[in-house]
Each structure stands twice: as C-alpha cells, then as structure tokens.
Amino acid sequence: MIRRLKQADVNAIENILKRISTFSETEVEVAMELVNIAAYNSAQTDYHIFVYENNEKILGYYCTGKRPLTDGVFDLYWIAADPESEIKGIGKRLLEHAENFVKENNGRWFLAETSSKESYSKTRSFYLRNNFSIVAQINDFYSVGDHLVVFGRYFSN
User: Fold this and answer.
1) In this model, does residue 132 exceed pLDDT 70?
2) pTM of the prediction?
3) How many domains does the chain have?
4) 50: domain CATH number?
C-alpha cells in the first residue's frame, strides 16, 4: 500500500536511506530534512511524501513538490526503496504513484535530478526505463567531473 507519510515513519525512512550505499551521510541528512519538515509541520505544502508499506513495514518512499514560480512543474526530490526488501518493483510503483500525484495536481513536467557518477548509473537507468528522458546536463555541477543530470517527463493534457 502507498500512503501519506506519518510521523511514526520517520525512523524507518532514515534506516532505509542509511542502508543505500550510494547515498553519502550528507545526502541522507538532506533527505531527512525534507522528511522532517513534512512529518512535523502539517501546515507546509512544499513537500509531499508518500511511503510504500507492506505488512506494517515501510519499504520505500518518495518526496515530490511543485517547483516554485511555475504553474505545472514538479520535482521528484527523493525516491528510495529498501535494498534489503525481497519485494521487487517498489521503486517503479512509487514512481507511478508520484506521476499520478503530479497529473492529479495539474503538473505538466516532472523533473528528477541526479549525479553523473558511476555509482548513480542504476538511478539513471531507472529513469530511462520509466519513460523519462535527459532534458539537461550541467557539467562539473556537484564537483569537477560530477555533472548534474536532469531527467524529465512531460504530461500533455
């Protein structure tokens, strides 16, 4: 089942993020900032977080939000599935749910940014397999040799 984030989910999400070897400690901290904002500030509308739950265990999540100053562009800030889960396809199901959320909220563009580092090759392949295309690249963005790769999916009305 995919449902909205609850405060009780915060530790489970942090544990998932820490088990993903691709993510640095700093990346986990940034991801958790958004999770905490969404979990502990019910008045905020910037971050929409949904979790994938199976048998009362959190196995993944995503965080999306409308890009400021746009009338229909959403960012996929984070998407992660528990690397120790034996259930396959969690990421794909979460992404499909996120796409439907974007469409239901009159989104035209759905953007996801990632690194060009080799350790992120599976992430880039994931987006390409799921009908995203590379819409931009900024060389030496994160550091020299580590480019920002922007994937996008356009939804026509």
Assistant:
1) yes
2) 0.94
3) 1
4) 3.40.630.30
